[in-house]
Amino acid sequence: MQSIKNLFKIGTGPSSSHTMGPYFAALRIKENFPQANRFIITLYNSLALTGEGHLTFDVLKNTLSPHQVIFQTKIDISLHPNTLMFEIFNNDILIRTIEVKSIGGGEIVFDGLEKEHDDIYPHKSFDEIKKFCSEKNLTLYEYILQFEGSEIEGFFQLVWKQMRQTIETGLSKEGILPGKLRVKRKAKDLLHKKIDEETDDVMENRLVSAYAFATSEENASGGIVVTSPTCGASGVLPAVLYYMLQKNKLPEKRIIKALAVAGLFGNIIKHNATISGAVGGCQAEVGSACSMAAAAHATLSNQFIDQIEYAAEVAMEHHLGLTCDPIDGYVQIPCIERNAVAAIRAINASRIAYFLSDSRKISFDMIIQAMYQTGLDMHPKYKETAEAGMAYFYKTKPE
Ligand code: SF4
């Protein structure tokens, strides 16, 4: 597995595969071909169908500015769901054609080059990691430090700082999100909508939702977020961490450890399955984010490795089969609310794990395999095309 540094990326929303990935691809091409002054970019499949709502065209045009960019959109299911073909010109002379795949979480793959980064972890599955930790008497955080080096702490601090900042920015804003859906921002309302005689449970639900809405609304408006593991699912983990921080007044060090453990679980999913909605549906995005947040919550609750694993497993198990059908291609409906629901579910999963981990039959590795296979079997129209499920019924509803 690669470094967790490649999982948590700080950048602008609304989509890691449709905005951040294309941005990184265009930037690299612009740097590598300084003589280029004209581009024809063909967007394939999910990028072609939802590129407008995901701001793909805007980010490519802005990154390659001041040069001329002509877009084409095509469907070719023999290609990766998020493929970009760059034809690079100097005036009328074609310099090069480059195919890029945006594989999720802002990660890109150029032509035949399968990997951008080297593996630094010798283990591939959670079972292997658990065995190693038990033999060496390590916590999951100590395991991460052993292979990443202690300087990774500075990286996690940076990531956490950005997560906090995004929540606080989101909580301070009001108004309507960009795009034709005219979706109202709700994070600030949720934060202040305390009801009379509010019970602790209701308050927890309201606050966790407010924090998740805050990040997801920032993401939907092209604000700065951290892929955790993607932009579309970036509200879940920060909401749980921020809630735990506020509620228990925890020292930052404990939040950093929980964030790191969440990153380890996200990394295992990314390595063995997918975190891309266009490849595996929303179970791969919000399902993965829920697993990560459940592992973080269990870590903050001082649970054992088995219980942390169980929390992450339960969180994914109950997202299996979840489709990706963003209305009009905007990362708004169902995405924003779905982040809030998943954040609450993550806390539930961690609490179930606390009581029931000794009776479990499904491992984290098994649920990841099940999620990936379900994603591969899922009909392509349910994987970030905005042409099925809610997106279809919304589009065809009578005026
Ligand atoms: S439905 Fe899920 S996977 Fe699809 S864009 Fe929204 S958050 Fe991402």
Characterise this structure.
The chain has 399 residues and is an alpha+beta fold. The chain folds into two domains: 4-110, 2-Layer Sandwich (60s Ribosomal Protein L30, Chain: A), CATH 3.30.1330; 126-395, no CATH class. The chain has 16 helices and seven strands. The chain has helices at 16-32, 46-50, 56-64, 126-136, 140-148, 152-172, 187-192, 200-220, 236-248, 252-272, 277-280, 282-300, 305-317, 335-356, 364-377, 389-395; strands spanning 10-12, 38-44, 68-74, 83-90, 93-104, 107-110, 224-226. The strands form two sheets. It has a five-stranded mixed β-sheet with strand order 3-2-4-5-6. Helix 6 crosses helix 8 and helix 9 (236-248) packs antiparallel against helix 10 (252-272). The longest helix is centred in the last third of the chain and has 22 residues, at 335-356. The chain binds iron/sulfur cluster (SF4). Iron/sulfur cluster binds at residues 232-233, 277, 282, 285-286, 324, 326, 331, 334-335, 338, 384. Iron/sulfur cluster binds next to helix 12 and helix 14.
Give the arrangement of secondary structure elements.
Layout: E1 10-12, H1 16-32, E2 38-44, H2 46-50, H3 56-64, E3 68-74, E4 83-90, E5 93-104, E6 107-110, H4 126-136, H5 140-148, H6 152-172, H7 187-192, H8 200-220, E7 224-226, H9 236-248, H10 252-272, H11 277-280, H12 282-300, H13 305-317, H14 335-356, H15 364-377, H16 389-395
Parallel strand pairs: 2-3
Antiparallel strand pairs: 1-7, 2-4, 4-5, 5-6
The structure holds iron/sulfur cluster.
Brief digest:
With 399 residues, the chain is an alpha+beta fold. It folds into 2 domains: 4-110, 60s Ribosomal Protein L30, Chain: A (2-Layer Sandwich), CATH 3.30.1330; 126-395, no CATH class. It has 16 helices and 7 strands.
